[in-house]
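We examine the record.
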Amino acid sequence: MKLETDEKVINYIRKRVAAARNIVAVLGIEMLVEGGGYDLDSNEETYRAEELYGYTPEDMLSTSFYNAKVERFYRFYKNEILSMEVRPTPAYDALLRLQAQGKLSAVISQNFHGIPQGIHFGNVIELNGNMNSNKCTHCNKVFDIQYMKKAPGIPLCDKCNTAVRPNIRLIGERVDAKTMTAAANACEAADVLLIMGKNMYNDRLEYNTDPNRSQLKVLFTKEKHLSDRRVDFVIHDEIQLFLPAIV
C-alpha cells in the first residue's frame, strides 16, 4: 500500500532515524487500534458504551466510579477491556530492529494493555499501569489477568475476600511522580521522538526540549485536521506501514 505522506518527508525522517543515537517511542491509542484493540474515546465507542452500560467509558474508568459502583465497573472492564486481544504489528518489529541497532533507548506506553506477547523491549515505562497486574487493596496479594477474567462478578482476593484492583491508572488519579519523571527525562534526551497516537487520558506527556537542541518529533494520528506546534511532522499513514519504511 502506498503511503500518503510526501516522499521528501519520508526520506528526511528516514535519514534522521538512521543518524540518531537515541530514539524514544511513545505508544498511544493508534498502536492499540492497529493491533486489534479499539479506541474507547471515539464518538462511536462512547455512544455504544453509553447505550449498553448507561455511562460513558470515561465515566466508568474513573476512580470515583470504581469506588462507588465497583460491580458496574467490573462488568464494563471485563467485557470491554480484558476482552481486547492486542496482537503485534510490523510497527513493533520495526521498533525491535531499532533496539537491535542500539538506537531505541525507551518505549513509553500510554496504554494500560501492555506490550503484545512475544515483543520484548529493554526499557518500558508504563505511564498508566498495566492491566496484566492486579492487587488486593487489603493484603497486597498479586493476581494475574486470568484470575480477573475467570472470577465471577467482582474479582475477590482468595485470601481476605476483598475486591482485587487492577494496577492501572484510573481517570482522576495522577501519574506516579517517579514514572512521569523517567518518561519526561527519556523524551528530553531523545534525538528522535516517535509519538504513536494520542493518550487515552488526553493529558499528553510534555515533549519540551532545549530549543537550541536538534530533536525530531514525529506525531502519528488518524485525526486529519490535527495540528501540533510541538512536533515537526504529523503523519496520518498507518504506523505499521510507515515505521518499517523508515527503519
Summary: The CA atoms of residues 4 and 85 lie 29 Å apart. Residues 131-168 form a domain with the SIR2/SIRT2 'Small Domain' fold (CATH 3.30.1600.10). The chain has three domains: 7-36+87-128+174-246, 38-83, 131-168. The mean pLDDT is 91.
